[in-house]
Amino acid sequence: MIQAHELEVRGEDGHTWSLAARIPSNPQTSLLWLPALGVAAKHYLPFADTLAARGIAVFVHEWRGNGSSNMRADGTRDWGYRELLTADIPASQAVISDACPELPAIIGGHSLGGQLACCRLALSPTSANALWLVASGSPYWRAFPAPIRYGLPLVYRFLPWLARRRGALPGRVIGFGGNEASTLIADWARTALSGLYAAKGVTEDLDAAMARIDVPARAVVLSDDWLAPASSLQFLLSKLPRAATSTIELDTQTLHTTADHFGWMKHPDVIAAHLTERTSSGTSHPCSMP
To answer: Three-state SS string across the chain, please?
Structure first.
């Protein structure tokens, strides 16, 4: 039996959102899942249901400015990685810890969510026992194959300019992300141009902290994913030299759906099977929902 819950989370600055939860009767571990840029939590519910059927208590985070979040980016309201990494993600983790205090914790994500899962672990190494990445990788332009990489620096300079000019990135209009905060796009573009993780207002050296992460990491790369090709994933994983990493590449035939950046979300069974292989702890503990 799988229970569905929407848990309200409130941040210190008045930000509120719903944490979408899918809880099996006797879960063996918990997972905080971080979405891709501009993707609402509800789109990961098929993935959450599939994982819950395999004994994982799944909690899907909602990015500030998307879906159930009470904030929207505009010329008067802005945020960046700092708010996501030091306020919002910790608040979701606190709700999970209260609900499932005895379960080992996994943090993972899709695309930008995978990157920020790494950054969150860097800032709080004891907040999770494992890391899962799906269709994720660094946006660093040199980590992409030719010829696509040659045009990326121009894109990475244009998007922050557009976001500053408009007060927020009109992602729905240009076909990249959602309506995204200006500082968030600036933080993302900084990594995309330099290959280094940093955030306005975060004083910690994120790359140095990522190098100290020593939890096991599982990653899935999709063969036709030009947004997160294998080379960009490997560049991201190279920042985790102490983590025991396991990577698998899946194609359309194996997935039974398109092996691109988003197609797997509607048909997540194969990816869920790979992620949960040999994850059983041998014990289970019920979660207490409010």
So the answer is: CEEEEEEEEECCCCCEEEEEEEEECCCCEEEEEECCCCCCHHHHHHHHHHHHCCCEEEEECCCCCCCCCCCCCECCECCCHHHHHHHHHHHHHHHHHHHCCCCCEEEEEECHHHHHHHHHHHHCHHHCCEEEEECCCCCCHHHCCCCHHHHHHHHHHHHHHHHHHHCEEEHHHHCCCCEEEHHHHHHHHHHHHHCCCCCCCCCCCHHHHHCCCCCCEEEEEECCCCCCCHHHHHHHHCCCCCCCEEEEEECHHHHCCCCCCCHHHHCCHHHHHHHHCCCCCCCCCCCCCC
Res 281 pLDDT > 60: no
Cα 143 from Cα 180, distance rounded (Å): 24
Task: Kindly state whether residue 192 falls inside one of the protein's structural domains.
Answer: no
Q: How far apart are CA 189 and CA 158, in angstroms?
A: 9
Domain count, the chain: 1
Per-residue model confidence (pLDDT) at position 285: 85
Q: What are phi and psi of 236, to 5 degrees?
A: -65, -45
Query: What digits encode the pLDDT tens for the residues 217-272?
Result: 999 999 999 999 999 999 999 999 999 999 999 999 999 999 999 999 999 999 99
The answer to the question of residue 195 being in a domain is no
CATH of the domain at 213: 3.40.50.1820
**Residue closest to 140 by CA, chosen among 94, 183, 178, 192:** 192
User: What predicted TM-score, i.e. pTM, was given to this entire model?
Assistant: 0.97
Range of the domain at 88: 2-138+203-276
